[in-house]
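Teaching assistant here, posting this on the class forum so everyone can see the example we discussed in section. The complex has two components, and the goal was to see what a joint structure prediction looks like when all of them are supplied at once.
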Amino acid sequence: MKTVETFTWAALALPLAGAIITGLGFRVWRGKTAGVIATLILFSAFVCAVIAAVKLKGLNVEDQQHTSVAWDYAKTLGVDAQLSILVDPLALYMALVVTGVSSLIHLYSVAYMKSDEGYTRFFAYLNFFVFSMLVLVLAGNFLLLIVGWAFVGAASYMLISFWYRRTTATAAGIKAFVINVLGDVGLVLGTYFIFKGTGSLDFLTVFKEIEEGAAFAQTNDGELVAGCLLLLVGAFAKSAQVPLHTWLPDAMEGPTPVSSLIHAATMVTAGVYLIARMWPLFEQAPAAANTGAIIGCATLFIAATIALTQTDLKRVIAYSTMSQIGYMVMAVSSGAYVAGLFHLMTHAFFKALLFMAAGSVIAAMANVQNLNKMGGFRKSMPFTYGCFIVGGLALSGVPPFSGFFSKDEILAYTADRGGFHVALAVVGYIAAFMTAVYTFRLIFRAFWGEPVEEARELEAGHLAHGEHVNPANGEPEDTHVGFPGPEHHIAERAPEMKIAMGVLAFLATVAGALQIPNVTHAVDTFLEPTFEESTYFQTLDPSNTLTYFGMALGTVLALSGIALAHFLWVKRPDIPATLIARFRPLYSLSFHKWWFDEIIDFLIVRPAAWLGRFFDGQVERVLINGVLTGGTTGLVKSASAAVRGVQSGFLRFYAAAFAVGTVVVTFYFLVA
Amino acid sequence: MTPLLAAAKIDGPEIDWAGLSPLIALIGGSILALLLGLFRARPVREFLVPFVALAAIGTALGLTIWQWDETKDLVAGAMRLDHLTLALTGIFCVAGIATVLLSWRHVAPRESAHGEYYALLLASLAGMVLLVGATDLVALFIGLELLSIPLYVLCATEMRREGSLESGLKYLIIGSVGSATLLFGSAFLYGAAGSTGFADIVKALGDQDIRDSALLLTGVGLLVVGLAFKASVAPFHMWTPDVYEGAPTPVTAFMAVATKAAAIGITIRLFDVALLPVSDIWQPALAILAAITIVVGNVGALGQSSLKRMLAYSGVAQAGYLLAGIVAATRGGVEATVFYLAAYTVMNLAAFAVITAQQGLRPDGDDLGAYRGLGVERPLLAWPLTLAMLGLAGFPLTAGFIGKFALIQASVEGGYTWLGVFIVIGSMISLGYYLKVVATMWMTESPEPAAPAPAGINPGTPPVLAGGSPEADAQGLRWEVACVAVVFGALTLAIGVYPQPLFELASDAAGAIAGLLS
């Protein structure tokens, strides 16, 4: 256990060291130095995580969950505040995914961000993000979990607003941060309920108390359900589930590697991890778990419909991320923990890959992200195209790509729960069909068809260099720090990007082999020590009929979705316009993202702003500033003047004051 | 003569030399420093003497650690060696080491002769150790005087500066009044209880008649006043700003931390041991004094432009916080008080080290205006001062936060919730002056490029007297002072991040006081 702990701590400490080192070096380092250092550090963290995982699996099953305490912060004050990590298969599984994908994205960024003036800062942020994420997934108690949760939010904010002179980027950063803080509040309040019931903040202690019935013995205990629902608020905000999802599409304002790492592969899966980690709580509070499953299902459907009509390349992928995380949330809330976590991993591979490929396309388009202006990149960017196809097939769930196995496992296990979960699974299949349609809509529109000017130029060997404008609102920009750099980098010309994408493409293709029904159970076996006590882990076991029927259905849906996309955007490109005209209301619903932004603006933002103005004008200025603050500061100031006035400097006066004081005190003692 | 001497033979009490060893090391060091100071050779006076002082304090600290788990009565019950004595001795030694480092190459020892300066410092330290170990009114008074008299002199060691002389004289006169009050109180207490030993006093106080006697009540009242004076508790604090401002800065640092720790230490022992049976009488009185002190100290510190004066008022306020822990009269209260004393020592030493350094760099180094733009110019000094200010204000992740938290908790558990509220209000007011320092350092720019310390001294100071030269007074940044600042600044942060070991020490110290509610 000692070795495992050591290596896990090392994996946690390395990115922090990297963030500090890179952060300190920003004045001196030129060129790719910072990127190389940050990438190497991250890669060593990954190696540490691998060693820790291998060693952990060498131990007895009952020894595979262990809290490692670095130090007690304060045990005297009634709270067991410790700096402790929980070393168990789930934590290391997450650490592996996080460090592994992060290393590759760091590698990609070494080339992709090369001409940016904020190159070193970018890598310092990126390392800090990985550290925060590791704190989140390795935390051994609620306190540290909250710290990690908040750090991740902060890192996300810094990276979304990385191009801080872009007004749209800073606005998106603020939006993401506000919604994430809402989630933090949920997490903290949820922790309060759980601490109140169990008297502990330590994960294993809390779980043990609940399993033994020492706390929250009653199923659906009111306070436990409240606590779990509040935890879900935290999970929904971080994982962009409706109605707290509006920040995720806007977060695409950040550099593409950021979208790839944070807003696809790692951070947004924190909610999935949280629900899976808290399974003893959620199994004791089925009401909360069912809420999670339904919200996850709603998200996966709504996001898929929106993705069908968006025209911004990155935003389509962002909505697809939302949808896929909806699948995971639905899975872990329905008791299909391993399926959800398996999909988390495969999704990290293929979604990171898709974003990287999208980044390459955007670079070739000189930062233009509008799908309407793209086309015909198939010839000029063969490698990017290939990666996009692999990612697209995995996302659509075409066998034998990884997404096929993980998505079908989720749907089969969800259906196996019976009851309303069957309906959830059916919605999942419908959305799977839409997934194939919108994914291949992207591919056909960006890579097929008549090559646009940029694509033709690239075929001739010239990378397009357009005007420096903000793609979101057309504002002119320069290329100094705070804006994107002058050069663009595509995968075809940057070996670093090629390696990162190649590795991910390989993983996206073969990772499904880890968990083929009736053949392999690698993920299942790996995670077993974490979930072995779980009722659903023990009982859920879809029959062969269900499994194979599900797989066949999934294949058919994916292939027909691709065929439909081919028909609509390659064979008969005139049809989509006709369809839009005929189904105007449906199109509007999707195109305007179900008006979530508008509804939230009307229901929350505007009343809040009005209330703010009211309190500012009436209460703050008149009552607080005028009467209360003015009165208090006036009182303190006059008291201060009085005290200083008494301090005359004359000794006789001091002696007199002393004498009077003595008399008063003695008199008090005699009288009282 | 011979028969008289023979007749004067007395049976001395049995002496436990090991238990007394820290005290002996300090007194021995004091004598040695005084003698070595007689040599005319500069290296001996300027290097060997401070080194001897450091070695003596270091030895005392080592002996303290060696004696850590001992608990015994020394010198026929006049003194007690327990975790409380040892923990506070540790604090004194740390403060002493810092003071020696701050004084080395400072003006004060050069003007007053090195031998005398360090001998007085060590004697004062010995007085503190004796004071906090005292379990007898006589030992208490001897300790108090041994602590105070060298300090009166030390305040006046910068003999060419009027402020220093004024400070020494004021302290002497007003201090004598304080000592007299304490002595009066002791006499009354002895009159009421019939004994000077704390253990016998506790026994005597079992009698209801004695508890109600005017003699006892007057005595307790006068003792409260005497100790309140030493700990600079309002309304007996008025000497503090003047003396702190006038005294040489290393001496101010020493007074601010070590004297306060000693006064609070003996307050713990006197009230929570000897006078515990009458706690219902003194608790409300001390609580009211604590509340007044918190308000007066914090309010007075607002609007001060001299940093030393501001820290003097801040010290008054902090004494109020510390008193709150004693008022609770529980183990948790004593633990919180000892913890906060240690934290307070660390934070204040960092602040005073920065002021000492700054005064070495420019003549107006005590003035807030001298700190404009320090964050950019000298981050090495600005960071420790920032940490110290944030710590004293009670910011999270600093030693002050967790210390105040423990004090408030102790107040609440001891039934003095309203006093806890006072601590919070006081902390809020205190942000007004602590943050001003931080803002001055980081958010304003220095008015002109930092001019090298001009030859000459403060405007308004009397002409240079014989024996010194202004050029010798203007020094660069002394590395040992910067070291003290950085080390204690870092400790402020370290204790805030990892308070558990210090809590354990404080808990041991509190455990030394038997008879308290846990």
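For the discussion questions: The longest helix of chain B spans residues 162-193. Chain B touches chain A through 46 residues (CB under 8 Å). Think about how each of these relates to the inputs above.
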